[in-house]
Amino acid sequence: MTSGVEALAALARRPLLIVLDYDGTLAPIAPTPEEAVPEAGAREAVAALLAGGRHLLRVLSGRPSAQVRAFLGSPDLPIVGLHGLEWPGEALPREHTRTVAKLAAAVPDFPGRRLEDKGVTLAVHYRATPDDLAGDVQARLERLPVPEGWTLLRGKRVVEFRPSGANKGTAVMRLARDAPDHLPVYVGDDVTDEEAFEVLADVGGVTIKVGEGETRARHRVASPSDVVTLLRTWANAPSEEGEHG
Ligand SMILES: O=P(O)(O)OC[C@H]1O[C@H](O[C@H]2O[C@H](CO)[C@@H](O)[C@H](O)[C@H]2O)[C@H](O)[C@@H](O)[C@@H]1O
After folding, report:
1. What's the confidence (pLDDT) of residue 244?
2. Is 193 in the pocket of ligand 1 (CB under 6 A)?
3. Are residues 40 and 146 in the same domain?
4. Ligand 1 pocket test: which of 23, 60, 127, 189 has the largest number of ligand atoms within 8 Å of its C-beta?
5. Residue 67: CB within 6 Å of ligand 1?
6. Residue 62 Cα to ligand 1 middle (Å)
7. Is 118 in the same domain as 129?
8. Domain tally for the chain?
């Protein structure tokens, strides 16, 4: 395990496929989803990498892609949303609406409860739940029946019901297959990002965990601020031939 931005700077001598999570990676965790604005400099660093054209950049988020786009701008940035269920130019699976409604009806009330119905998944947030109740609330949520063919995800003060199959691991592998001449790099901070870390490690990709906590990633940076520094560094790095861009 390496730590810090310096150890990762030289990677950009090769063309990279940079796949970024959003919450906790490009934006500090905030009290509500609406308040999770990008880290200072993140929008500019994303734009610089896209403009440079040497590296490929993708965002892979649990959010609907439109929310991420609203935060980041950059209309040309490809965004895969909903943990790999939503792909640019492809229709969303619509057969899950009734299951999501049933799941929402089964979620017990608790202080600070917030349901986020994303159409094909359901997130149950408990960030606004008092700390002394959060452990019990999490345990109750994790005991809810999970429909056949669905998976319960654990995240930062959130649990999420999602159809099985698509996940950040399968999504990052699809992105990597579509860019065989680029070294895949995945940067993320949360439990769902571990799915991407696991599969990328198996194919020689670079895996970077943001923040503390156990991880399968091989590298670590401390914060979204470090992620911005890293993206800037890569945007300005010389290529193997010693040229910029
Ligand atoms: O895959 P990501 O881009 O990291 O998205 C994961 C979830 O992020 C959001 O929730 C988390 O961030 C919120 C804002 O910082 C925070 O309030 C919440 O407690 C976190 O769980 C988003 O609301 C979810 O839809 C995403 O799945």
Report:
1. 46
2. no
3. no
4. 23
5. no
6. 7
7. yes
8. 2
Q: Which atom of ligand 1 is nearest to the CA of 68?
A: 3
Q: Summarize pLDDT for 85-134 with one digit per residue, the tens.
A: 999 999 987 788 899 999 999 999 999 999 999 999 999 999 999 999 99
Whether the complex's predicted ipTM surpasses the cut of 0.95: yes
> For residue 35, what are the domain limits?
2-85+166-236
For residue 235, the CA-to-ligand 1 centroid distance in Å is 27
**Based on the domain organization, do 20 and 64 belong to the same domain?**
yes
Same domain, 111 and 75: no
Supply the DSSP string of the chain, one letter for each residue.
-EESSHHHHGGGGS-EEEEE-SBTTTB---SSGGG-PPPTTHHHHHHHHHHH-SSEEEEE-SS-HHHHHHHH--TT--EEBGGGTB-TTSPPP-TTHHHHHHHHHHSPP-TT-EEEE-SS-EEEE-TTS-HHHHHHHHHHHHTSPPPTTEEEEEETTEEEEEESS--HHHHHHHHHHT-TTSEEEEEE-STTHHHHHHHHHHTT-EEEEESSS--S-SEEESSHHHHHHHHHHHHH-B-TTS-B-
Q: In angstroms, what is the span from residue 69 Cα to ligand 1's centroid? A: 15
The per-residue pLDDT of the chain, averaged, comes to 94
For the question of residue 109 being annotated catalytic, the response is: no
Residue 243 lies inside a defined structural domain of this protein? no
Q: Does the pLDDT of residue 201 top 90, yes or no? A: no
pTM, rounded to two decimals: 0.94
The residue nearest atom 8 of ligand 1, judged by CA position, is: 23
Considering the domain architecture, whether residues 183 and 217 belong to the same structural domain is answered as: yes
